[in-house]
DNA sequence: CTGAATCCGACACGATACTG
DNA sequence: CAGTATCGTGTCGGATTCAG
């Protein structure tokens, strides 16, 4: 990209980083992996990016053939979407997600932007990396007090999170903070946190959810126990 | 890291990039993945990094628990090596390598740093991603007019490149540029480039090499043909 | 209200020289 | 060999403004 971002080094990693290694670039790709987005969607999800830099990054990504602009004729909105070259960055973002969850996560700080679309995308990536499976394909929808719903799907093989609502086996109604608290807790600490998700669905679907994600405390083990700070999903 | 590198965003990717997203950081990890290195080794492989920034990055990586310093007592040398947390970054570098080879590589430019250790590391990552296999485990050593030899190994499952020399089925003696020209050529254009590798080994080992990496031109197809610029390994 | 452009200050980084 | 020191430039954040 810019001259100072060049490494002058014959190496695929260096070349890749010259293209996608600048600030914000990979976060833009992360958001576009969920589907096309408008300028203001991107701006919102990105927390503090200034419009100037969002514009710059989008132009650079366009010039590199990673992003395409769609202006819907008649409307003033501009939609940005990934090209196949951009979609091929998914493994990079997945490996960064897995490393981050294993080595760099801490509970959200007060002022931090917290979007279910974003952290559920990370959650499903992590579930895939851990090989968690359900006995059968399942679809769960989470609705939030503020913000759009998200659909989590296990297709029998892999997990995915997509924005919006689909026909679901299970529907939860909660807040971003409560869902995150549930996900960041160790499986054996989750039982008291399930209630806040307000899950609704068939008894079978509820059982599938709890079996996979919650370890019920043995009733004889109700004594308070030293809890480690480290979370284990 | 620095305040301006913070994203204030609850997202594993953002967190990871705050730690390893600054310039040079991932290239340092790339080099340390081949094994412990001294300050000056790192400086050499990195092309143009200034000592000040190499020091900065190493200190930050140390503070993050990604790199450890080893001062051999009595000697002035300092060896840097990865911690397990640092080694866990390997998938990130592999996915960047694969994306870069598929979407961002071009022939080396005149002034560009060109190290066999580095591009053979990328080559084996790419071979693994393509699933190329040999009929049996094999070890190939390449010696260079300038620079240290590199051992390429296929263990029956995966490829790896390690610095130094081991007992080998096949030994090549060549230059970095000639080996790179061979690797970047399409399989069907490689036959005339093999000679420059000066391979020595049993006829069986040579046959394994050529079968896997070279497509011999049919003698009836010797007519010149339009060549595409795109390389296919 | 969306999708930008502009000016300014902070600091990340590069180039060069020098030290224990 | 393994760093420091100094100084210039480019990248980025913050605030404001502008056009459709």
Topology:
The structure is a homodimer of 233-residue chains.
Chain A: H1 12-20, H2 25-33, E1 37-38, H3 39-45, H4 51-63, E2 67-71, E3 78-82, H5 84-87, H6 90-103, H7 116-130, E4 138-144, E5 150-154, E6 159-163, E7 170-174, H8 176-184, E8 200-201, H9 203-213
Parallel strand pairs in A: 4-7
Antiparallel strand pairs in A: 1-3, 2-3, 4-5, 5-6, 7-8
The structure holds a DNA duplex (20 and 20 nucleotides).
Greatest interface by residues involved: A-B, 51 and 51 residues
Please write the string of helix (H) and strand (E) elements of chain A.
HHEHHEEHHHEEEEHEH
Name the strands of the widest sheet of chain A in spatial order. 6-5-4-7-8
Which regions of chain A are unreliable across 5 or more consecutive residues at pLDDT < 50?
Answer: 225-232
Q: Output the number of helix runs of chain A.
A: 9
How much helicity do the residues of chain A have? 25-40%
Biggest β-sheet description of chain A? 5 strands, mixed
Please compute the radius of gyration of chain A using only Cα atoms: 20 Å
Shape of chain A: globular
Strand content of chain A: 15-25%
Query: What is the oligomeric state here?
Result: homodimer
Q: How many strands of chain A?
A: 8
pLDDT averaged residue by residue of chain A: 90
Alpha-beta classification of chain A: alpha+beta
Please give the alpha-carbon distance between the first and last residues of chain A. 39 Å
């Amino acid at each position: 990209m810019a001259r100072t971002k060049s490494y002058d080094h014959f190496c695929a990693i260096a070349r890749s980083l010259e293209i996608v290694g600048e600030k914000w670039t990979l976060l833009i790709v992360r958001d576009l992996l969920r589907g096309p987005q408008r300028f203001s969607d991107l701006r919102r999800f990105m927390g503090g990016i200034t419009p100037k830099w969002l514009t710059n990054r989008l132009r650079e990504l366009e010039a590199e053939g990673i992003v395409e602009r769609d202006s819907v004729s008649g409307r003033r909105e501009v939609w940005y979407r990934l090209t196949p070259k951009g979609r091929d960055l998914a493994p990079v973002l997945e490996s960064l997600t897995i490393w981050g969850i294993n080595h760099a996560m801490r509970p959200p700080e007060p002022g931090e932007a917290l979007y279910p679309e974003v952290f559920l995308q990370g959650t499903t990536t992590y579930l895939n990396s851990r090989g968690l499976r359900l006995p059968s394909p399942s679809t769960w929808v989470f609705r939030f007090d503020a913000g759009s719903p998200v659909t989590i799907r296990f297709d029998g093989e892999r997990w995915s999170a997509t924005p919006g609502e689909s026909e679901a086996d299970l529907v939860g109604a909660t807040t971003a903070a409560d869902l995150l608290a549930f996900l960041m807790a160790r499986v054996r600490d989750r039982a008291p946190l399930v209630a806040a998700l307000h899950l609704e669905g068939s008894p079978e679907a509820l059982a599938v959810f709890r079996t996979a994600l919650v370890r019920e405390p043995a009733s004889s083990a109700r004594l308070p126990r030293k809890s480690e700070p480290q979370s284990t999903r």
